[in-house]
């Protein structure tokens, strides 16, 4: 997934290429069927359950990368930036078909009451893993397809029943996955600190961070200043430069690789802000370390 283009999708707000089903103004299901290859980044404001029916959908978050193929699914946690690449395979005429379900707390709470399923309190983070989709879930997904043709006329109550049906099918297919889904409901609202720390090395803007935290840009900046006692842009840039200095000092990565690994989008800007803070270009640090090693040898 190296060299990924800069296409950015805010999920679910910007999913204009998908057929959508909505309930009380909230997006709950999106489906897509097309050919070709697409790649970019998704900014997840909601928890997402992704099913692939044809083709391949690759998602990467930090060091974790998961390849979801035909009749597989993966659970993705909100307030994260996910790099993706998706395409159809040759043996299926390059068709890519998938569905995305957005899991709101209200729905999960209602499912718990109806199912009387007791979730286990867990303190560890939720790992993303690729899980096979069984025949019962495949039949459920097929039953949704007619609804996309008449999406405007579907009542909220019917759509809620279909979403609850999905959760009951998952409980039957994989109780561990259901534990993971209900763990999402137990999470407190995502804080600014968590959003910033999780995405500090991702090439995200302040608008992106505000979106991930569910706040307006002005509210995000105001709360950030209260927490860190420093302007948002300046604090984030300095943290990235600190990490870049650590990598240039203790790794074999090139200046370009360090630039991209620490959230800077191009080397010229990276070199400019580096020199402004440290007084010399980043290449000078690497050259100085090289000369010192030769001298000691």
Automatic annotation (TrEMBL):
Keywords of the record: DNA-binding, Transcription, Transcription regulation
A Pfam family assignment: ExsA_N
InterPro entries in the cross-refs: AraC_XylS_family_regulators (IPR050204), ExsA-like_N (IPR054015), Homeodomain-like_sf (IPR009057), HTH-like (IPR037923), HTH_AraC (IPR018060), Tscrpt_reg_AraC-type_HTH (IPR020449)
Gene3D superfamilies according to UniProt: Homeodomain-like
Domain HTH araC/xylS-type: residue ranges: 190-288
Domain of life the protein comes from: Bacteria
PANTHER family: HTH-TYPE TRANSCRIPTIONAL ACTIVATOR RHAS-RELATED (PTHR46796)
Record-given protein name: AraC family transcriptional regulator
Originating species: Paenibacillus filicis
């Amino acid at each position: 997934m190296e060299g990924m283009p800069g296409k950015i999708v805010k999920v679910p707000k910007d999913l204009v290429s998908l057929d959508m089903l909505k309930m009380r103004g909230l997006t709950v299901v999106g489906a897509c069927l097309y050919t070709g290859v697409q790649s970019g980044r998704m900014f997840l404001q909601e928890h997402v359950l992704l099913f692939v029916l044809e083709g391949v959908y690759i998602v990467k978050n930090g060091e974790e990368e998961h390849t979801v193929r035909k009749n597989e699914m993966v659970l993705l946690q909100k307030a994260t930036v996910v790099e993706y690449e998706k395409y159809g395979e040759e043996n299926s005429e390059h068709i890519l078909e998938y569905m995305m379900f957005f899991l709101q707390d209200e729905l999960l709470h209602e499912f718990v009451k109806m199912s009387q399923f007791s979730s286990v309190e867990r303190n560890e983070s939720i790992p993303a893993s690729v899980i096979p989709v069984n025949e019962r879930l495949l039949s459920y997904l097929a039953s949704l397809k007619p609804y996309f043709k008449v999406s405007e006329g579907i009542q909220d109550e019917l759509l809620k029943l279909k979403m609850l049906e999905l959760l009951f099918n998952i409980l039957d297919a994989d109780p561990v996955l259901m534990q993971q889904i209900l763990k999402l409901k137990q999470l407190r609202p995502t804080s600014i600190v968590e959003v910033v720390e999780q995405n500090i090395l991702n090439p995200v803007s302040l608008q992106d961070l505000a979106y991930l935290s569910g706040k307006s840009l002005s509210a995000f900046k105001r709360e950030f200043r209260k927490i860190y006692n420093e302007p948002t842009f300046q604090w984030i840039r300095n943290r990235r430069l600190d990490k870049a200095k650590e990598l240039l000092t203790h790794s074999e990565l090139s200046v370009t690789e360090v630039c991209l690994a620490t959230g800077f989008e191009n080397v010229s800007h990276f070199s400019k802000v580096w020199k402004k803070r440290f007084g010399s270009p980043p290449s000078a640090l690497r050259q100085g370390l090289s000369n010192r090693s030769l001298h000691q040898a």
